[in-house]
Design a protein that fits this description.
Helix 1 crosses helix 2. The radius of gyration is 16 Å and the shape is globular. Helix content is about 25%, strand content about 30%. It has one domain: Rossmann fold (3-Layer(aba) Sandwich). With about 180 residues, it is of the alpha/beta class. The longest helix is centred in the N-terminal third of the chain and has 23 residues. The strands form two sheets. The protein has a six-stranded mixed beta sheet, with helices on both faces. Strands 1-9-8 form a three-stranded antiparallel beta sheet. The protein binds 1-O-pyrophosphono-5-O-phosphono-alpha-D-ribofuranose (PRP), guanine and magnesium ion (MG). Magnesium ion binds next to loops. This is Hypoxanthine phosphoribosyltransferase. Pfam families: Pribosyltran (PF00156). GO terms for molecular function: guanine phosphoribosyltransferase activity; hypoxanthine phosphoribosyltransferase activity; magnesium ion binding; nucleotide binding. Its cofactor is Mg(2+).
């Protein structure tokens, strides 16, 4: 285990198995609805890149991939409260079935912003798959069709999740020791 991590919440194997289940559920739920066009999987960079890469390989219907970069945390452990688009989609999503792959729902600010932004482009449907959902005191009400794991209200890292751009490459998800950021 990395010296800056106090506890592993989800192991590489647990993550793999859960991502496979979510991929199978998306496959079944969209097989008929999306038909030959399939779905567009949208990853919220940078945190969700690893989740999306693994999830896409568990989806067995036609699946395009596109990326949007959004940031609100900067280099800290608290949301700045201001969500910024750093990179927009390359594809048009009007009339398409869109599945957003997000790594974590914390305050909900990022997904609330993203859902509003993407809904204005008139997709056929807009669905959220989040690997992690944190139970916080203040959380925007975001409807997530697929949730990998519920997690505690601690700052977590690994499997795409960073602190100051580090730890994204850890294969597991764990709690960052508070002394690292205090
Ligand atoms: O529900 P919220 O409180 O809005 O937090 C969730 C968001 O925060 C993180 O992104 P971050 O802004 O750190 O950018 P990153 O993905 O580049 O790390 C994470 O990847 C989610 O997108
Ligand atoms: N790395 C990381 N990013 C986040 N963004 C929102 N919550 C978190 C968290 O707990 N860890
Ligand atoms: Mg971050």
């Amino acid at each position: 285990m990395h010296k800056d991590v106090s506890e592993i919440l989800f192991t590489e194997e647990q993550i793999h198995d859960r991502v496979a289940e979510i991929g199978a559920a998306i496959t079944e739920d969209f097989r008929e609805k999306a038909g030959d066009d399939g779905i567009i999987l949208i990853s919220v960079l940078r945190g969700a890149a690893i989740f999306m890469a693994d999830l896409a390989r568990e989806i067995k219907i036609p699946c395009e991939m596109d990326y949007m970069a959004i940031s609100s945390y900067g280099n800290g452990v608290k949301s700045s409260g201001v969500v910024r688009i750093l990179k927009d989609l390359s594809s048009h999503i009007e009339g398409r079935h869109v599945v957003i792959a997000e790594d974590i729902l914390d305050s909900g600010l990022t997904l609330t912003y993203l859902l509003k932004n993407l809904a204005s482009r008139n997709p056929a449907s807009l669905t959220v798959a989040t690997l992690l959902r944190k139970k916080t005191k203040v959380q925007a009400d975001v409807d997530c069709a697929y949730v990998g794991f519920e997690c505690p209200d601690q700052f977590i890292v690994g499997y795409g999740l960073d602190y100051a751009e580090r730890y994204r490459n850890l294969p597991y998800i764990g709690v960052l020791k508070p002394e690292v950021y205090e």
